[in-house]
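Dear H.,

Thanks for agreeing to be a second pair of eyes. The structure we're designing against is below in token form, covering all 86 positions.
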């Protein structure tokens, strides 16, 4: 039995969506891990809604790098807020 091209497309699309969702959640968790390691965990949790609203995986990966570089929690917060206003 041959699979239809529509079925193949749906499976591929669903797989890609699942991958993107997982990769996005992993990126968000990576940012949190770095921030909680470097700064106060309670303050970091205040950023959760802003980070979880970001859909762009590349942007989340950039924020992970920013979290690694940030010298203060406030500096990272400014970076996050500055970019969410774009």
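And this is the sequence the design step returned. I haven't edited it by hand at all.
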């Amino acid at each position: 039995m041959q699979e239809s091209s529509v079925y193949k497309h749906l499976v591929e699309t669903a797989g890609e969506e699942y991958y993107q969702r997982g990769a996005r959640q992993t990126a968000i968790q990576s940012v949190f891990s770095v921030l909680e390691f470097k700064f106060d965990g309670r303050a970091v949790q205040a950023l959760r809604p802003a980070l979880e609203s970001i859909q762009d995986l590349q942007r989340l990966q950039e924020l992970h790098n920013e979290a690694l570089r940030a010298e203060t929690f406030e500096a990272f917060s400014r970076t996050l807020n500055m970019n969410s206003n774009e």
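Two observations from my side: The chain has a mean pLDDT of 84. Residues 5-84 form one domain.

Warmly,
E.
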